[in-house]
Amino acid sequence: MRTFSSYIFLGLLLIYSCSTKQEVKNDLTVWVTPFIGSESQDSLSLPSNTFPGATTPFGMIQLSPDTQKDILNTCSGYQWKDSVIYGFSHTHLSGTGISDLYDILILPFTGTKDSIIAKLTASNMNHLRSTFSHEQESASPGYYQVLLNKQINVELTATKNVGFHRYTYQPNAIPRVLVDLDHSLSKRRKWLPFKMIDAQLKVVGPHTLEGYRIVTGWARLRKIYFTIKFSRPIADYWMFRDKRYYPSTDLICGVDNKSPLAVLSFEESKEPLEIQVGISAVSTQNARENMKYQAENKTFNEIQNKADADWERELSKITIEGSNKYKRMFYSAIYRNYLHPNDMADTNGDILLPNYTEDNLGKGNSYYSNFSLWDTYRATHPLLLLTQQERMPAIINSLIRQGEVYGYLPIWGLWGVDNYCMIGNHAVSIIVEAYIKGLRGIDWSRAYEIIKKTLTRDHANSSFFSQVEQYGFYPHDLGYEVASIHLENSYNDWCASIMAKKMGKEKDADFFLKRSMTYRNIYDKQCGFFRPRMSDGSWAEPFDPFRYDGDGDKRYYCEANAWQYLFSVQHDIKGLMQLMNGKEGMEKRLDELFTTVSPTNEINENASGFIGQYAHGNEPSHHNAYLYNYVDKPWKTQRLIRQIISKQYNDSYNGISGNDDMGQTSAWLAFSMMGFYPVNPASGEYALGSPVLDKVIIHLNNGKQFEILIHNQSETNIYVESVSYNGKKLSRPFITHEMIMNGGLLEFYMSENHPH
Amino acid sequence: MRTFSSYIFLGLLLIYSCSTKQEVKNDLTVWVTPFIGSESQDSLSLPSNTFPGATTPFGMIQLSPDTQKDILNTCSGYQWKDSVIYGFSHTHLSGTGISDLYDILILPFTGTKDSIIAKLTASNMNHLRSTFSHEQESASPGYYQVLLNKQINVELTATKNVGFHRYTYQPNAIPRVLVDLDHSLSKRRKWLPFKMIDAQLKVVGPHTLEGYRIVTGWARLRKIYFTIKFSRPIADYWMFRDKRYYPSTDLICGVDNKSPLAVLSFEESKEPLEIQVGISAVSTQNARENMKYQAENKTFNEIQNKADADWERELSKITIEGSNKYKRMFYSAIYRNYLHPNDMADTNGDILLPNYTEDNLGKGNSYYSNFSLWDTYRATHPLLLLTQQERMPAIINSLIRQGEVYGYLPIWGLWGVDNYCMIGNHAVSIIVEAYIKGLRGIDWSRAYEIIKKTLTRDHANSSFFSQVEQYGFYPHDLGYEVASIHLENSYNDWCASIMAKKMGKEKDADFFLKRSMTYRNIYDKQCGFFRPRMSDGSWAEPFDPFRYDGDGDKRYYCEANAWQYLFSVQHDIKGLMQLMNGKEGMEKRLDELFTTVSPTNEINENASGFIGQYAHGNEPSHHNAYLYNYVDKPWKTQRLIRQIISKQYNDSYNGISGNDDMGQTSAWLAFSMMGFYPVNPASGEYALGSPVLDKVIIHLNNGKQFEILIHNQSETNIYVESVSYNGKKLSRPFITHEMIMNGGLLEFYMSENHPH
């Protein structure tokens, strides 16, 4: 069959997109393929859950097609294998394993009044939807296009807070538009179901529909206010609520999942119908101001060009040489790392705090949320610290503010509030990493204060710090996933200790350093795994290093088995080595990790992308392939990196292994393609791998350049013969953040043979 | 057994209360018995659902004991027959048939740390609670006292936004205090269950605990922020979440019904422990400001005296002469009419609008919510228009603002938002009544604008205005409880028409007047009842005037049968008379109403207090006994009024027939005891009955007095021989609002015989 990339090529040639594309100057954005990751790699893998829609770097709007209703299967709303589109909603999450958002679904369609009313009031309500085909679909950064029912061409673009729709109907058809406030994650899902608490749609002028919805789901509580402006006057409108037509009203309210829908009609015209949707988390007035400031008197093409230019600016911070396939893989991976977190501040600086009160940061200031921290602290945030240094202070300050208001730093920040997904407060790692790497624009004493509170206040999903002080570990009988929690808390404890030390807080530094080493208390030398203990000191039973369940519903590990957490000690690899009886012991365990096949072939809902017990499809494994560098066998790292890149990534719709998790799985790829990876992000050290690109230039915001030349690399020349920095040969397969920030030239000399 | 009132007397004598009572000068507040209505009259009646706790007139705080957990049976949280108290929460509703609020439960207790932790972490969690007896309980306006476990004396008082607790422990016991954010209406209730979305408790200083809870229940969404100040330093605190003890933290968060609790301990002392709790619907900062402004540096006794004085001022607007029993019944009824609506504005003027955005009204301004309008438009609001004229503009303006923001006037306004309970937008009646009665301080053109929108925008629970225009009625097959909705909408249509007419909007006046007469289209002359029609014009089947169900789940009437809605045409009694073939026909139907016994004895969950088919226990009947005045048989009205007062009211805990419904059932009593009642509130006319008091003086806020002298009245002299106004004999048993507002003397001459 035709290759995926040729679809895109074909899409780009479609007259609709051409008419706009031709005006847009493209250098790097052409290499971004938003469809990558819109399908699982195989039946055993999680879907990567990316969305192809239009958005701006770190913007609040992700205007994207939803190919599923009552969304359960794909958390991004879009799945490559689907053949229908229910509409285009304005907020999405990229790569998460849980669904939410999907605000304000809009669908262009045609039909008679009677047929529409019949459909929307049928007891088994037939949702409006359209067929589409990938041949008639295209996407690029800040732009998405699809032909619906072979009749209505849809184009989407966005600013930070405003979504733009351009609908081209058949000239002879009466243009209709559905606005649906019911569309959401599943209401049937038992675990954290969606509930629409309140909502409203109101015609407020000849061109304008406004409203809001107040909902609870994965995000505890979200308020979304919006104003929708149409390029042509609304000729007629029909309001619906809970499968019932309200013939005589200009506004419709919904409560308790009795959802409001509106169908609006417009004059027939050859001209496309353009729709601007401004949103705010604070008020409709703010949504209006956001639209006025970002979109007033701007054409669709102007907005699209602006979005494209914004992406071009962000992508051009790293320029590369390599094959077209690698360029598509690399820049698409970078692109997916700039989708989140999202700036939720309104134009006037209004923000919503984690206690559901409002504050104003002053006009033009940013406030970020949507942090999948358990994932992104590993490589996404290190990547942002390399390329988004001007944005990172606002991101860090948003984390600090959220921590100060709520009481501790987020575990998983969604729409400004903690949803307690996963474990550990890895914002600690991100903040300490920024501190260690010398980021400016942050009150570090405030930062340390909330880090200390975060790591001393007992709270859910980071378990009970008081326990590790009392028992020396987190007892299984008093907790949940305690082995993973202990390992991850230990890493964050270590982060806190190096920050305290650098700030001269010796006492704190000792306290946290000591606690960061307690992970050793749960290493069972008998079986050679980290393993939970009971409060009486005995080991939790039963134990099976391949099992994901622990004992029944009480898991030992978080989304993993003992193998996958065996090396989760990024902060004390030397210590881990001692537990494993030195380098040889650790190398042996690493070899076993990458070769041992589970005797039970137990399927796990989160682990996938297996190489032995290594599961690249989930985050705990992500640094493991680089660990051979620490046992003086870098060539094994190099071989594995090449194997993972070639087997678990590509430039097609199934090009990502497992959930992309807001960029983390892609950040692993981007770093690895460049030849280095932050095994311990906060340390400021990177382990070297096997770069697949020929040349990389990182354009640093301090004005300097860090250039990487990869000599003689090919599909067969995968081993690193030597590496030099500014002409001087490196003695260890590691570089430091300082070396990068000072600029200079890193040269890899590749060969097809590895040392023995 | 000893009488209820002697309990109170005994309560008042308890040293604890005496120590404070003695300082409080009482004239009228002594006649208020807050316990009236805390139990059902009989097994067939609904509980009246009043609460005995401490509150101020129309204040946001109702600090009252909750004798039930997971509250279902009593919507006020308190039931006379109960023998345990779970604690004292700060917000309650008086007389409603559905439960909500109960924010921030606080309970004083004692016990060892281990026993407390064991209790609060037990899998079948034993809620902390205390026994109590009515002999050791007392209450008066703004004050409540009870002795818990014969050991801890509890006293409560309040300001508008601040609740005050004074706990006197045994000197040798370590004082403990439970603060519980879990306490609420039932989470198990299938219909509108409670969900705690988010909550927090945080120790912020040696004397201070702060937090919030964000919840959804009967009220769609409520945010409650609070600050709690203790008179002694917190010596120790233990935090709990979801039956789990968090040993090492100064804050505890709860999400998704995983509720936070805190137990605080204090030094032993002979001095009572005093606690101030400030609340706000907007922010903790506002809660602090409310407390600072209303309570700082004030003693418990000062606050109690202030609350008592506030009540005294409100009660003294009507002075009466009569038996002590009648004084208790009358002033308690007046008291219950001043509990709602509640001023939700913060001291700084911040308010929460129905779209969940915030606004500021300016310091010192009031903003009212909690409107049980289907009930209270009948007599509560007419009573407020007589005695609360200085407060009514803010109440009316709050209704207008809520209508403007939301799109139509509230049906049932709870915590600032419409919960769509019951039917009809009876705020229309309240606003028009105020307009007709000449209230100042309202932009009447704005008021009319939202009334018109309210009565022309199709919306839930007022059904579809477009239908009555298309069919001439609300078809049963297209609606629910349509007969009741038609009758009630017709009344509101009539209200709109007289306002439009007075404003010179002839066209609107004609439109609404015409529509207000369409109720006649559903009067079935064959059976002589109002009865729903199908959209094809045929009558809905089956029909049985005694049945409450309609056909299966689709009711014809709202909480009633055909008999109980037969006379619900307050605005066109002449027209109803014509339908019933004149005065004789209507008298005959009234006689039947009050004598016909249901052959099926069908029990109904809402109708009770039967006299024949007349059900005084629910509102649709409330004006019916006065209708004999319109058929020239006022003596039948007089006889009935006396019968209802003596049989369905008393001055004991079971002194109210059915739900008090935020004062309406009590407002009927207050008016009837004075001798008049607003059959058609907006008309400005009152029908006369049979007063049971000897003398009444209404002290009007225009400086005038309206005095009522009842000559020769007694338990046997129940008939009105004649009535004179300023010496001039009345020709009809009616007076006007104008006559009252002009001041003057109304004299009833009573006799034991009635004319034949």
From TrEMBL, chains A, B:
Taxonomically, which superkingdom?
Answer: Bacteria
| Pfam families for the chain | Glyco_hydro_92 (PF07971), Glyco_hydro_92N (PF17678)
Which residues belong to any copy of the Glycosyl hydrolase family 92 N-terminal domain?
Answer: 31-280
Lineage of this protein's species? Bacteria, Pseudomonadati, Bacteroidota, Bacteroidia, Bacteroidales
The cofactor(s) it depends on are: Ca(2+)
Under Gene3D superfamilies, the record lists: 2.70.98.10, alpha-1,2-mannosidase (1.20.1050.60), alpha-1,2-mannosidases domains (1.20.1610.10), GH92 mannosidase domain (3.30.2080.10)
Q: Which GO terms label this protein's molecular function in UniProt?
A: hydrolase activity
Assembly description: Monomer.
Q: Which UniProt keywords apply?
A: Calcium, Hydrolase
Q: Which InterPro entries match?
A: 6-hairpin_glycosidase_sf, GH-type_carb-bd, GH92_a_mannosidase_put, GH92_N, Glyco_hydro_92, PNGase
Glycosyl hydrolase family domain location? 286-751
What protein is this chain from? Glycoside hydrolase family 92 protein
